[in-house]
Design goal:
The protein is mainly α. The chain has a domain of about 60 residues. It has 3 helices and no strands. The radius of gyration is 58 Å and the shape is rod-shaped.
Length: about 170
């Protein structure tokens, strides 16, 4: 095997870099600033920081006050709710007591305690039955004067006279 060596090129002379073209005219107000000269501009000044802190404090204070007002209102609502439950229980007790006092058995017992007795013969008063000619309820606005039972009045007037006589009868 024979080795072939590739011919090497002769080094070419190094070319010098082409000079940079200078701008024709440089503005006077622009200049290059060295990093040590560069001043960092702050976005938040100390006065602004104080104002922001005061604003944050005022906001937190307002939230705390609002929360306190809400809690006080809730405490008041809880008190009213417990009072409502107590009053509802008292109302139910009073209704039960009233029903007990209105019961017929208690009234009969109270009458017996006062010396009243149940009569042997009871007479129940019945209202007269209306005539077939009378239809519907009466309004009492009739233009006719009431009939006198002694003058041969109507059947209803006689029934009232009988009931009145029973009511005015002396007790046995």
């Amino acid at each position: 095997m024979t080795a072939t060596i590739a011919p090497q090129r002769a080094p070419s002379p190094q070319r010098a870099p082409a000079p940079r073209p200078r701008p024709a005219e440089r503005p006077n107000h622009l200049r290059v600033v060295a990093p040590s000269e560069r001043a960092r501009r702050r976005r938040v000044t100390p006065g602004m920081a104080v104002l922001l802190t005061a604003g944050l404090f005022a906001t937190l204070l307002a939230v705390a006050v609002a929360h306190t007002v809400l809690v006080e209102g809730q405490v008041r609502l809880d008190e009213l709710d417990s009072q409502l439950v107590q009053e509802q229980a008292r109302y139910q007790e009073l209704r039960a007591e009233l029903a007990e006092r209105e019961s017929p058995a208690r009234i009969v017992q109270a009458a017996n305690d006062m010396g009243m007795v149940t009569p042997d013969d009871l007479k129940y008063l019945q209202p007269p039955t209306p005539d077939a000619s009378a239809v519907g309820p009466t309004t009492g606005d009739d233009d006719e004067p009431a009939a006198d039972p002694t003058d041969g009045g109507t059947n209803e007037d006689l029934a009232w006279a009988d009931a009145k006589a029973l009511l005015e009868a002396p007790a046995p």
